[in-house]
Amino acid sequence: MFGLQERLYAENKQSLLIIFQAMDAAGKDGAIKHVMSGLNPQGTHVTSFKAPSSEELDR
User: Residue 11: which domain range?
Assistant: First the structure.
C-alpha cells in the first residue's frame, strides 16, 4: 500500500477518501488501524466527525 501512496503523492493529480461509518462497537477502530498501518502517516490526514448538531440537522 505504501507504493500506491507514493504514486498518488508523486502524480499530484488524484486523492483517496476513505470513510468508515458503523454503529458503536462495530470494529471501526480496528479496521482503521489495520488500513492505516500500511500507509506513511506523513501523507495522510485523519479526521473524526461527531454526531451532527441540531442546527446541522435542520439544514
Answer: 1-40
Residue 16 makes CB contacts below 8 A (sequence gap 6+) with 8
> With contact defined as beta carbons under 8 Å apart, do 7 and 45 qualify?
no
Dist CA 41 CA 54 (whole Å): 34
Give, rounded to a whole angstrom, the gap between the first and last alpha carbons of the chain: 38
Q: What tens-digit pLDDT sequence spans the chain (59 residues)?
A: 778 888 877 888 888 888 888 887 888 889 888 888 888 888 888 888 888 888 888 88
| Residue 8 covered by a domain | yes
